[in-house]
Design brief:
Strand content: 5-15%
Distance between the termini: 67 Å
Structural class: alpha/beta
Length: 498
C-alpha cells in the first residue's frame, strides 16, 4: 500500500484527510470554539455580495455545500477536510509545475500535513483557512502561465486571473501573495512576459472577477468597517510586539516538519543543515518568491503602518515552505529517507486518531466548557419550547453567533439575522414583513438569564407592537464522552404579533 502511495500522491492526500476528519470528530463534539464556523454559516444563508468583516467567497462555498449536505457538526468538519484536501492537491500541482520530483513533492506534502496550519488549526473553517486552498492554486496557475508555451500560457494566465480574484474574494489579505508575483514579472529575466498576451489576459479576468465586488463596496462603505480596523495605530511598541509575534508564529506553526526535515533530508552540523535547507533556489527563483514574498510583504505593510499584524494571518503564509525545503534536500538523503517517512504514516495515522481520543478524553475529564458546549441541544430546546405552545412558525433569530447557532441546528428553517430586524445593516436584505412574523432574540451565552438583555428585548418588542415571552433553559450533555456534570443556561426572548 505505501509503495503505491509513494508513486501516487493523490490517494495519500485523500486518505490523510479522511483520517484527519475522523480525528477532529473524535476530539471535538462541537463546532469551533470561537464561533467562526457558525458566523460563516450565518453569512451563507443568502447570496450576499459582502459583509462587515470579509468578502464572501467562503460563505458562498458553505452555501453550496449545505445545499446538498446536512447542517451538522460532522458535515461542517467534512467541509473543512475537503478544503484541506484541495489545499494539499494544490501544493501537489504546484510542486509538479515547478518540476520537482515525485519524491520531493510527496515528502513536502507529508511534512506539511504535520504542520499546525494543516493539522490542528484548519478545523476552524474561517477566512484564514480558506486561503490554505486558494493560494496554492493561484500560485500553480502563475507558475504554469510563466513557464508554458504560447497556447497553454494564455489558458493558465486566465486561470491565474480567476484564482487570484477568488483569493481576494476570500480574504483581502491575499494581496500579499499577488503583489510579489506581480513584482516577479518585472524582473529583467521575466519582462518578456509583458510582450505577450498572457499578463493582460490575467488582468482582464482578475478585474472581471473583482470589479463587481469593488463597485459594490463603493456603495456600502460600512462593509469596510472591520477591514479598516486592522490598520496599525496603537503606537510603535504595539506595532513591534505584533510584528515579533507574527515572525515567531510563522516558524512556530511549522516546528514538526522543520525538525524532521533537518534530521532526514540534509547531513552535517546544525548550522550547515539550516543553511542548506534555507538556501535560495537559484534554478527555481519563483519558488523563492512564493515562499518568502508573502511573508516579506506582510512585514512591510506592518512596518509602514498599513496593518497591525494578526498572528492567525501566518496560517496560510507557509503553503510553499515544504516545497522550498525539499527542493534543497540532499538527493541521496531524500531517496533514502523519503520512502521511510511516507511509510511511517502507517503509524502516524493511527496516532492521529489516538491523539484525538486523548484530547477529547482530557477535555471531558477537565470539564472544558468549550468541549461541553451543548449548541445543538440548546437550539433544539429553544425551538421545541416555542412549538409546544404556538402554531406560528419561527421565522428569524437575532442576533450574532447565538442566533446563528440556533438557526444552524434548528430542524425547521429559521433565518439568523446579524441584528434586530429593524436595524439590519445596509448590505443585508431588509426583512419587510417582520412585524407579522414570530422570532426569537438570543441573549449572550456568557450572561445567561441576564435581566438587562431580557428587559431590552421585551422593551423593543413592546415598542414595535409585538408580544414577548422569555424562557431560560438549562442543558447538560451526557454520555460516555461527557463524564462531568456541566450545566449551561441560555435565555431566549420570543416575540410575535398581537
Amino acid at each position: 500500500m505505501f509503495k503505491t502511495l509513494s508513486s501516487r500522491p493523490t490517494p495519500f492526500v485523500l486518505i490523510h484527510y479522511l483520517v484527519w476528519w475522523a480525528m477532529v470528530l473524535i476530539a471535538k463534539p462541537s463546532l469551533d470554539w470561537y464561533g467562526d464556523m457558525v458566523e460563516v454559516y450565518a453569512w451563507s444563508q443568502r447570496w450576499l455580495a459582502d459583509w462587515s468583516k470579509h468578502p464572501q467567497f467562503l460563505p458562498w462555498m458553505a452555501k453550496i455545500w449545505l445545499l446538498a449536505a446536512p447542517k451538522s457538526v460532522a458535515s461542517f468538519y467534512l467541509l473543512s477536510a475537503v478544503n484541506l484536501a484541495v489545499a494539499m492537491l494544490g501544493i501537489l500541482a504546484l510542486g509538479r509545475a515547478l518540476r520537482l520530483s515525485d519524491m520531493q513533492v510527496l515528502v513536502a506534502l507529508a511534512l506539511g500535513a504535520l504542520a499546525f496550519p494543516y493539522l490542528t488549526l484548519a478545523d476552524e473553517l474561517n477566512m484564514n483557512a480558506i486561503c490554505l486552498s486558494t493560494w496554492p492554486w493561484t500560485a500553480w496557475a502563475f507558475v504554469k502561465a510563466t513557464s508554458e508555451k504560447d497556447g497553454r500560457r494564455l489558458l493558465h494566465a486566465a486561470l491565474f486571473g480567476l484564482f487570484a480574484g477568488l483569493s481576494m474574494l476570500s480574504k483581502y489579505y491575499s494581496i500579499v501573495l499577488i503583489l510579489p508575483l506581480f513584482a516577479f514579472t518585472l524582473l529583467p529575466s521575466q519582462r518578456w512576459l509583458w510582450r505577450t498576451v498572457a499578463p493582460w489576459a490575467a488582468i482582464v479576468v482578475f478585474l472581471a472577477v473583482t470589479t463587481p465586488h469593488l463597485l459594490w463596496l463603493l456603495g456600502h462603505r460600512d462593509a469596510l468597517a472591520y477591514a479598516s480596523e486592522q490598520g496599525a495605530g496603537d503606537g510603535l511598541g504595539n506595532a513591534v510586539y505584533y510584528i515579533a509575534k507574527f515572525v515567531i508564529a510563522s516558524l512556530f506553526y511549522w516546528p514538526i516538519p522543520l525538525v524532521l526535515a533537518g534530521l532526514l533530508l540534509v547531513p552535517g552540523s546544525f548550522a550547515s543543515r539550516c543553511a542548506q535547507l534555507s538556501r535560495w533556489p537559484k534554478d527555481r527563483p519563483v519558488l523563492g518568491v512564493l515562499t518568502l514574498g508573502p511573508w516579506l510583504v506582510t512585514l512591510f505593510f506592518a512596518v509602514v503602518g498599513l496593518a497591525e499584524l494578526s498572528t492567525p494571518w501566518a496560517i496560510p503564509i507557509g503553503f510553499a515552505f515544504m516545497l522550498y525545503i525539499t527542493a534543497n534536500a540532499e538527493p541521496a538523503r531524500l531517496e533514502e529517507n523519503g520512502p521511510k517517512f511516507i511509510a511511517a504514516f502507517r503509524f502516524i495515522w493511527p496516532l492521529m486518531l489516538v491523539g484525538g481520543l486523548v484530547a477529547g478524553a482530557i477535555d471531558g475529564y477537565k470539564a472544558n466548557a468549550n468541549y461541553y458546549k451543548p449548541d445543538q441541544e440548546q437550539a433544539l430546546a429553544a425551538v421545541e419550547h416555542w412549538q409546544a405552545c404556538h402554531d406560528m412558525p419561527l421565522a428569524w433569530a437575532a442576533s450574532g453567533n447565538r442566533a446563528a447557532t440556533i438557526s444552524f441546528f434548528s430542524p425547521a428553517p429559521i433565518e439568523a439575522l446579524p441584528a434586530l430586524p429593524d436595524a439590519l445593516p445596509s448590505y443585508y436584505p431588509p426583512r419587510e414583513n417582520w412585524k407579522a412574523e414570530a422570532g426569537m432574540i438570543a441573549c449572550p451565552s456568557h450572561a445567561p438569564g441576564d435581566g438587562e438583555c431580557v428587559q431590552a428585548a421585551q422593551a423593543w418588542a413592546t415598542a414595535n407592537g409585538l408580544q414577548s415571552e422569555d424562557a431560560t433553559f438549562t442543558i447538560r450533555r451526557s454520555g460516555l464522552r461527557f463524564p462531568r456534570d456541566v450545566p449551561f443556561e441560555t435565555t431566549i426572548v420570543y416575540v410575535w404579533p398581537k
